[in-house]
Amino acid sequence: MALSSASATLFDTASLSKLQYAKIAVVGTEWNEKIVEELFAGCLRVFEQHNVKIIHNLRVPGAVELPYACSAISKRAYEKPEAIIALGAVIRGGTPHFEYVCESVVQGLTSLNTNGEIPIIFGVLTLDNEAQAWERLGGAHGHKGEEAALAALKMIAFKRTIEVVQLPY
Q1: Cα 79 to the chain's mean position, in Å?
Q2: Residue 35: which H helix or E strand, with range?
Q3: 141 catalytic per annotation
Q4: With the CA atoms of 45, 48, 50 and 52 taken in that order, what torsion angle do they form, in degrees rounded to the nearest 10?
Q5: What is the arithmetic mean of pLDDT over 73-97?
Q6: CA R_g for the chain
Q7: Catalytic member of 50, 97, 141, 143
Q8: Three-class DSSP category at 3
Q9: Are 32 and 127 in contact (CB under 8 A)?
């Protein structure tokens, strides 16, 4: 099991001190709403520390709809975000549905990430049970909403860096 403490540099925010006026979109699922709302609350705590502007805060029915929503925002939104965070929680049931949903979401968001111009942050919890969610929302495994927000800010900083640097190829 991945622990937040295994990635100490993720929590080093020194590189974000010069990040000004970051614009973020957040798309969350309606399914497992209380878990998703706590993921979002973690994002908000980080955003407040770094003066981030949330320009889109939208909800979709479930996790399978996240790739479409992120794609639509990146292609069609009037005001473009610099990063999009996809938030959701998929909890294993007694059927193979869990695997299909998780695979669909991972493939969809990964495809957007590699083919698009806006970083898409994977903030989807894949869980065996609801108790595991709370371990990842301020429990033994840190807060995955806060981690998603930090990842988004670091990707914005990275994108801004490479946009001003001429790469040697």
Answers
A1: 19
A2: helix 33-49
A3: no
A4: 110
A5: 95
A6: 16
A7: 97
A8: coil
A9: no
- Whole-model pTM above 0.70? yes
- d(CA 110, CA 144) in angstroms, rounded, equals 18
| Cβ count within 10 A of residue 78 | 6
What is the per-residue DSSP string for 36-57?
HHHHHHHHHHHHHHTT-EEEEE
Q: Is 7 exposed, middle or buried (0-12, 13-18, 19+ CB in 10 A)?
A: middle
Q: Which of the listed ranges 12-16, 150-154, 161-165 does the model predict with the highest average pLDDT?
A: 150-154
Six-digit token string for 26: 């957040």
Query: Do the beta carbons of residue 90 and residue 101 sit within 8 Å?
Result: yes
Give phi and psi for 59, each to the nearest 5.
-125, 145
Token reading at 18: 């010069």
